[in-house]
Amino acid sequence: MGPPKSKKRKPTFRRLLKTSSVKIENKTKNRRFKTENTDKKHRKEQRKLRNALKDSASRAPRPLEVYKKRPEEELEDEDEEFLESLPTDMMEDEDLEQIKAMAQKASFVTRDLSSSEPIHSKKRKGEQSAESYEKHPRKMRKEEQKEVIHLLPIKDKSRIIPQSMEKPVEQKVEDDEEDYEDAELSANEEELEEAIPLTAEERETLRAKKLTEKKLCIAMLGSAIISDPNNNIKKLKELRGMLMETDSLVAVTVRKLVMVSLMEIFKDIVPAFRIRPLTEEEKNAKVKRDTQELREFEEGLVSQYKFYLENLEQTIKDWKQKKLKRSQAVALQAYRGLAEVAIRCVCELLVALSHFNFHNNIIVMLVPLMNDSKRNVSDMCCEAMKTLFKEDRLGYASLGAVKVLSGMIKGRHFNVRPELLKTLMWLRIREVDLKRDTAETAPKKRFMNNKEKRKSLSRMQRKWKKAEEKLEKELLEAEASDSKDKKIKLHTETLDIVFLIYFRILKKAQKSVLLPAVLEGLAKFAHLINLEFFDDLLNVLQNLIRSGDLTNRESLHCIQTAFNILSGQGDVLNIDPLKFYTHLYKTLLCLHAGAPNDDIIIVLQCLDVMLTKRRKQVTLQRAMAFVKRLCTLSMHVLPNASIGIMAAIRAVFQAFPKCDLLLDNDGQGSGVYLPELDEPEYCNPQNTSLWELTTLMRHYQPIVRKFAAHLSHGAPSDGSGALGVNLSRRSPGQLFADYSFRDMTFNPPVGAPTTKKRDHFTIGHCLLDQELKKQVDKVLSVPDEDDDTSLDFSQALTQTST
Question: How many contiguous H segments (helices) and E segments (strands) does the chain have?
């Protein structure tokens, strides 16, 4: 007969369909757990068996006196002791036998009378276990087990003979003892140094010795990490541990050296990409050994970099909060130096590792320090932020920094330093998506679905269409991350936040110290403002100029902003900026060779936008009035400003050729020139001439003389009166900067004046009045200083008047 049939019914196909996937998954998990448990138990039993074999092989034999005796032997020993204790020489044989018989019975003679327990009472289980524990022999000290190396076995005819040999033991004990002795000696030396007061010279010598040792240790660790970062990444932790140096003699210096060393090491070994954390699937997946080592290196690098940034941040916080540590290895006065080194390291990492992890954390740490009360700390952080804006090509780091700046300015209610806002001027924003809003509202392009493709396209066309779409998708995936569209999108988002900062200040804090920086920033980025804000912004600028609360520089920035708006997208607007022309014309006479000389560069930029680029909207009268006033201004400014102004006049002459009327002495039309009138349209500039050019042709600066002679000839582009290529191709602003007097030197150097030798000299008296000559000779001939003889000029005046 076959095996009995199982009473368990097989599940039908319908029942299998009803079974849920969760239940099936649970069943498979339970089955897997059972197999794992059985395997684990089997391994455990095998391990116990191996350990038992090892113990039996290495166990030492017990001494003979330790073994337990049998109960019969114990009774015989006790009888022998009892009989030996009795005086047998005085007893008869019968009495002795009777005593032996009584000893074998449990009677009151053999009973311990000190105990009050009954004779036949049984002992409790706990007492028996206690007695057995006490009688259990103590284990002897085992010999130290030697390590064995298993060799290849020898196969005999009947069995396999295992082979092994003892592993050679290295002399670690001696080394450990030596290290222990060295540590004890160094500890004793330190205790002696602390106990014995040292002189200043001995203290300085000891400090130099310790500092040299620490420097060597830092150099060894740093060179090892840089030479092989993958294998020595764990030494970063050892080097970072030196940031907690506790020796008060060298603690401050060592911490500073370690901060700077770690900063340079991270700048050298950090990869040129961002390391992302691994997902759970990637962690559980099996990879090659090289890949696993690379993952461990990257994970260790990111963790050590994070801990290093936390140490720097904690150092800065301790300085700001004036928190003294318990160890007191560093004095409270030294915290400022440590914090400044930490801030410098953070600034370097901000610029050098703008692509790496935790860059946003560095920005959050550094932005509040830009508004610090310590001037050197604030300037250091602002310079780092400027460098970041200048070198950021993609725009990710700039966008993160601008977001944090906006939040801090709003959170502090605009109570920040102007230098913080001036850093936004260094943003590398050249192009933005001005049609973003219209593109979002416009209807999106509709693609054909499969049904429409079948109707309109043939089979071959559909095949080609599918191949094209697949190729476009692959090209988009392979495209570089810094594509033009992505960069424009980032720049647009950044500029939106910048304008949000500026408009908030214009709306809520017009009288704050931030207004000049806001106007300067608007003047730079005005051509990128959306067309919807033009009317409101121009009204705000006009109201600011009318208020009269602005300085000359601030009003010039307002004018520059307005014309930058109108020269870009504002060409389509029908706005007459006559008030801005009038205000600039009035402001020109307020400039001079003192501090306002630096404002000339703004004037030159405004003139380029107002007269040269908008020449079709400017009348000849207005252009001639500006030329005359600019010539007057060039008489009382520094030479570099005079060169820039005359270069601007040259550009106006080329844009308005009829301005050469100012070179004639004859007046044109009726009226008299009114130089004090602030309206350029009504001051009659056609009735005057540029007589200032004659004076400027005798200027000590040779470039000023060249420009004056060039303008007096009508600013020709060729011929004898033309300028050289070196001067004609440079803009007014560039000439102003090239011939600057910032170094307090003549640029170019001024030659010595030529001496005019006379052919003959007249010999005679120097004074024509004879009476005066006599009095002078009389005074000069008197040797005695106490004589009261003096010149009487009043008498000579009365005689001549009569």
Answer: 33, 2
* Rounded-to-integer distance, Cα 588 and Cα 582, Å: 10
Contact 585, 629 (CB under 8 A): yes
Helix (H) or strand (E) holding 161: strand 160-166
CB–CB of 502/518 below 8 Å? yes
Helix (H) or strand (E) holding 57: helix 21-58
Q: Please report, for residues 418, 608, 731, the alpha-carbon distance to residue 631 in angstroms, rounded to integers and kept in the order given.
A: 35, 16, 18
pLDDT of residue 307: 93
Contacts of 431 (CB under 8 A, 6+ apart): 488, 491
Asked whether 391 and 351 are in contact (CB, 8 A), the reply is yes
Round to whole Å and give the CA distance between 387 and 375: 18
> What residue type is 577 in one-letter code?
P
Degrees (nearest 5) of the Cα angle 148, 151, 152? 155
Q: Give 275's strand partners.
A: none
Q: Rounded to 5, what percent of the chain is helix, strand, coil? A: 65, 0, 35
Q: What is the DSSP letter of 656?
A: -
Centre a 10 Å sphere on the Cβ of residue 405 and count the other Cβ atoms it contains. 23
Helices (H), 656-697: 692-696
User: Could you give the CA distance from residue 316 to residue 330 in angstroms, rounded to a whole number?
Assistant: 14
Give residue 206's identity as a one-letter amino acid code: L
User: Dmax over Cα atoms in the chain, in whole Å?
Assistant: 190
Residue type, 794: S
pLDDT 10s digits, 477-503 = 655 445 677 888 888 899 999 999 999
What one-character DSSP code corresponds to residue 480?
A: -
C-alpha 649 chain-centroid distance: 46
DSSP 330-347: S-GGGHHHHHHHHHHHHH
Which long-range contacts link 207-210 to residues 24+ away (Cβ below 8 Å)? 207/249, 207/250, 210/247, 210/249, 210/250
Q: From the CB of residue 625, how many other CB atoms can be counted at a distance below 10 Å?
A: 26
Strand partners, 149: 165
Looking up tokens 């997902």, which residue turns up? 279
Tell me how far apart the alpha carbons of residues 739 and 638 are, in angstroms, rounded to a whole number: 10
Tell me which DSSP letter residue 802 carries. -
User: Would you mind telling me the total number of residues written for the chain in this entry?
Assistant: 802
CA distances from 104 to 91, 97, 111, 120, 388 (A): 19, 11, 12, 15, 106
Q: How far apart are CA 358 and CA 306, in angstroms?
A: 7
- The residue behind tokens 């693609």 is 447
Which of these ranges, 284-298, 357-371, 552-566, 758-772, has the smallest mean pLDDT? 758-772
Q: Provide the 8-state DSSP code for 319.
A: H
The tokens for 571 are 């060409």
Count other C-beta atoms under 10 Å from residue 659's C-beta.
23
Residue 148 forms beta bridges with which residues? 166
In which residue are the tokens 């196969």 written? Answer: 155
pTM exceeding the 0.70 threshold for the entire prediction: no
Asked if residue 60 lies in contact with residue 140, where contact means CB atoms within 8 angstroms, the answer is yes
Res. 120: pLDDT tops 50: no
Are residues 593 and 642 in contact, defined by beta-carbon separation less than 8 angstroms? no
pLDDT digits (tens, 9 = 90+) for 658-668: 998 898 877 66
Checking phi first, is residue 362 left (phi over 0); if not, alpha (psi -120 to 50) or beta?
alpha
Q: Is 482 helix (H, G, I), strand (E, B) or coil?
A: coil
Give the C-alpha separation, 324 to 498, whole Å: 40
- Beta 148-155 vs 160-166: how paired, if at all? antiparallel
Query: SS3 for 406-435, per residue?
Result: HHHHHHCCCCCCHHHHHHHHHCCCCCCCCC
Least confident of 82-96, 386-400, 484-498: 82-96
Show the tokens assigned to 522.
Answer: 């608007």
Number of C-beta neighbours around residue 600 at 10 A: 26
Phi, psi for residue 713 in degrees, rounded to 5: -90, 5
